[in-house]
Amino acid sequence: MPLPPASGTGRYFVKAAKSIRLIRQGCTNRPFYHISVTHRRRLNSQAVIEQLGSYDPMPNTNNEKLVALNLERIKFWLGQGAHVTNPVGELLGLAGFFPIHPRSYMTAWRNRRTERENQAKAEKSTESTTTEV
Amino acid sequence: MNFKHVFLKRTCPMVTQIAEAHRKPRWLPVAKSKIYRIPKRPVISTEERLELQRINNNYNTQMRAIRRFYHEEMIKERSSLQSASSEMSQRLEAEEWEKCVQINDKWNSQVAAEREERRKVELAAMEDFALKRMEVKDAEMKDKIAIASEKIREQKELCSTFITPETLEAAIDHALANPTDYNFAIDLKGNQFPGRDIPITYEKNAEKTNV
User: Fold this and answer.
1) Which is more confidently placed, A85 or B84?
2) Within 13 Å, how many C-alpha atoms sit on residue B85's CB side?
3) Which DSSP string corresponds to B114-155?
4) How far is CA A22 from CA A19, B10, B91, in A?
5) A22-50 as b/e: b if 16+ CB within 10 A
6) What is the DSSP letter of B178?
7) What pLDDT is recorded for position A65?
8) Where are the domains of chain B?
9) For B80-101, how does the pLDDT look when each residue is reduced to its tens digit (9 = 90+)?
10) In chain B, % of residues over pLDDT 70
């Protein structure tokens, strides 16, 4: 018996809760994600209802992380009352389909803060070395 | 036992590959070295917490609105689809279909003309190719025939020297009359010494022995 396709079987229970989530499809040391709609209580290894896009988190030669989205179907599934997980919410926020996810803001300001701190540290170390000399 | 899979299989009778995380089983106790380890809680300042709360509240409100919008959209679409079976919409659809068919026919005829032209050109090219190949083949055959005829001529020339049953007796007589002895020797200057019994003179050796 063949395995169910990663692009989805198209079979679902109407009243069961759905979720739009990232499903890891890559191999070891090479993450690649499908954005799929599936039953909320199903494992990520199980058959999905439908694939709605893909996300490649590794930057390519042009330093791009590629995302593909089937917005029409995402709209359809949102209309059906599908839940959206945080990572997918972030992606959709950056795509301009949703408002920017709070987590995106949080990581951004935290990154900025650590960068500032690192910079301050570096300046301090350079100052100390100059004074020593 | 993992009852989860059994349960899931029953609800969803499909073959699924299940890759479990490779970690230690649930029934094993906490490692001795980790019993008194208390994980550090992340420290979030009040300022950050309040900001997070604010933007999360905003996000949730906006998301609720978006969700409701799409839900209503879905309901609207469904109702409009139900009205799609009316006479008016059917007529419109038929008209559009007609238009599409016309456009499609036009495109098809255009493509057919192009294809015909291309086919002619291709056919001409193929013919040319075949003719060229035939010419090359003919030239090859001609060469082969020439070589063969040359060989035949040579053989015919040699034919006069062949021994036939008529000339067999004469040939035998001739051979017996002129015996050839190949048992000769050659010195460095190319002089032949026929016969089997020739006295050998070792000039240098003889001199040496004399000395």
Assistant:
1) A85
2) 3
3) HHHHHHHHHHHHHHHHHHHHHHHHHHHHHHHHHHHHHHHHHH
4) 10, 25, 44
5) bbebeeeeeeebbbbbbbeebbeebbbbb
6) S
7) 94
8) 46-85
9) 776 666 777 788 889 999 999 9
10) 84
For residue range B14-73, list pLDDT tens digits in order. Answer: 555 566 667 888 899 999 999 999 999 999 999 999 999 999 999 999 999 999 999 998
Q: Does B19 touch chain A (CB under 8 A)?
A: yes
Both tokens assigned to B57: 């509240």
Structure token digits, residue B86: 């009316």
Enclosing domain of residue A129: 101-133
Judgement on whether residues A52 and A5 belong to the same structural domain of the protein: yes
**Interface contact flag, A98 B17, Cβ < 8 Å:** no
A45/A60 same-domain check? yes
β-bridge partners, A54:
A34, A68
Among B residues 43-72, those touching chain A with beta carbons less than 8 Å apart: 52, 55-56, 58-59, 62-63, 66-67, 70-71
Are A13 and A52 found together in one domain? Answer: yes
So what's the pLDDT on residue A71? 93
Total structural domains in chain A? 2
Q: Spell out a b/e string for A61-86, using b for 16 or more CB atoms within 10 Å of the CB, else e.
A: eeeeeebebeeeebbbbbbeebbbee
Q: Is B25 exposed, middle or buried (0-12, 13-18, 19+ CB in 10 A)?
A: exposed
CA distance A125 to A112: 20
pTM equals 0.57
Residues of B in contact with A9 (CB under 8 A): 14
Q: Which residues of A touch B (CB under 8 A)?
A: 1-4, 9, 42-43, 45-47, 75-76, 78-81, 84, 89, 98-99, 101-102, 105-106
Of A4, A81, A102, the CB nearest to B71: A81
User: Same domain for A107 and A95?
Assistant: no
Chain A residues inside the 8 Å CB shell of B61: none
A88 and A129 fall within a common domain: no
